[in-house]
Please model this.
Amino acid sequence: MDLPMKIEDRLALEDLNSAFCYLLDNNDVPKLVGLFAANAVYLSGDKHAEGHDQLREYFVARTKNGPRTSRHIYSGLQVQLSDENRASGRSVCLSFAQSGHPPLPPEPFMVADFEDVYVRAASGRWLIAERKILPVFRR
Model:
């Protein structure tokens, strides 16, 4: 049985997902890693990162061969509260990504389902504890 969710928690989880897309697209790795719990797990295809150090390496590696331009658009967030400090969520993300500086020709990279687990930190802030990226369409 799903627990009722306070509107401020719902909005905080929406903001968390929006921040993920924005910070990833703007290559702000320190703030991006800060959206995750210290022991977070991130799974995307055969790529796996666990904890802040591996997450940092994973996101920095996106630009190791030069500039990476991307835009991630998420929608349809469905959230279920497990208890007052834990929730699960699912959304759809459309991403455009290419190497190089903008403007670039529009090329969709992937449409994927995001399956998430969120935890509330001692500060009261929601964080991503687990994100599984499940491609539905991929270039």
